[in-house]
Specification:
Layout: E1 2-6, H1 11-21, E2 27-33, H2 37-47, E3 51-54, H3 60-66, E4 73-76, H4 78-86, E5 91-94, H5 102-110, E6 114-117, H6 120-136, E7 140-143, H7 146-154, E8 163-170, H8 180-184, H9 188-191, H10 201-209, H11 211-224, E9 231-235, E10 241-247, E11 252-256, H12 262-270, H13 284-287, H14 302-312, H15 316-332, H16 340-352, H17 365-386
Parallel strand pairs: 1-2, 1-5, 2-3, 3-4, 5-6, 6-7, 8-9
Antiparallel strand pairs: 8-10, 10-11
Helix pairs in contact: 4-5, 5-6, 6-11, 6-15, 11-14, 15-16, 15-17, 16-17
The protein binds NADPH dihydro-nicotinamide-adenine-dinucleotide phosphate.
Amino acid sequence: MQVSVFGATGSIGESTVDLLLRRDDIEVVALTGGRNCVRLAEQARALRAKLAVTAHEDCYTELKEALAGSGVEVAAGTDALIAAAERPADWVMSAIVGAAGLAPGLRALAQGATLALANKESLVTAGPLLMSEAARNGACILPVDSEHSAVFQALVGEEISQVERVIITASGGPFRDWSKTDLAQATLAQAMQHPNWSMGQRITIDSASLFNKALELIETREFFGLEPAQIEAVIHPQSIIHALVGFRDGALMAHLGPPDMRHAIGYALNWPKRRDLPVARLDLAQIGSLSFEAPDPDRFPALRLSREVMELRGHAGAAFNAAKEVALDAFISGQIGFVAMAELVEHTIDSLLSESCLTEPVSALETVVAMDQMARERARGLAARMS
Ligand code: NDP
């Protein structure tokens, strides 16, 4: 099987590489990364990749030198990422973080590849585009987000028309019990302390603010074609159950597993079969009990905002994600506080409500990119005034 990994040097990328290294039937077409050229070169050598691409043109020389004598072809820049996605591959991992993952994923679908989709921002910003591109080219999208992989697995052999509701779980993050006053003082270091999962910096902070779960509600709507009212989120601090599917006969099917992304990645890699995976097996007696609670919309407004975005439809997802990315950058750089992230996103969406393009149906990458840029500009201006 020929595979490519976009975002190979990240948290999902590393887990994917770990699984690929255990296989002897895989040919690696392309690996891509951002600034971590040393690690990208190590991976390319270990997997004997044909091509290694850094997203940044100024990193070309560093990557070229790191791969000297390896026989691995080297390229750099955004166009090179797109060209890599156009190289024929059977299975492509989409694990770039942020909206930057959208264009390569679309190109991979255009050449008919199976797209293992970790990059939830693709579905949030351009769900209809992604799904129609897959359908038009006979390509397949497999969810890699643990919650969506869980729903996907619970649906095997089922009819989507029989689904009453989908419940995705959230750990609640490090601030689950924090008061609003304390949240206003939360630091970057504290936001990085996820209780259960080890992930990249951006998704870890998004988990603390519940923006990650907000994106996942939209992702669920786009991927499974459900109505917003059918999609729920529940706080489940142990992160053992990843999602539940409720059927019209009242049955609730849950997917349980340890917090190890190699399960969802491996499921997508082996689909439609199952193979042994190097993940820990759950000891239910040792876990003892599982608990659930409703999310608090007052302390964590992200879920309410995502419902408003789902109702708006059109390009609201692209605006929401872009504003969220700007808010996250502003928090990471110390420009705004933790609570201000949600305020910034809400104000950005409010300021775009009068733009007719916000609710126009998504039909082309260009309009998604235009909305993304408009929302980023608006959010940056608002962030400057809030700081
Ligand atoms: P990381 O930040 O760990 O890794 C991101 C990857 O994307 C790195 O390879 C990075 O390169 C690369 N990258 C960063 N910016 C760009 C850019 N502008 N253009 C091209 N490449 C870029 O992220 P994660 O692995 O945590 O997350 C990846 C995606 O998967 C996200 O969409 C996230 O929401 C999703 N996801 C992650 C989960 C997890 O457990 N981590 C779980 C479920 C979903 P470099 O590091 O070399 O600069």
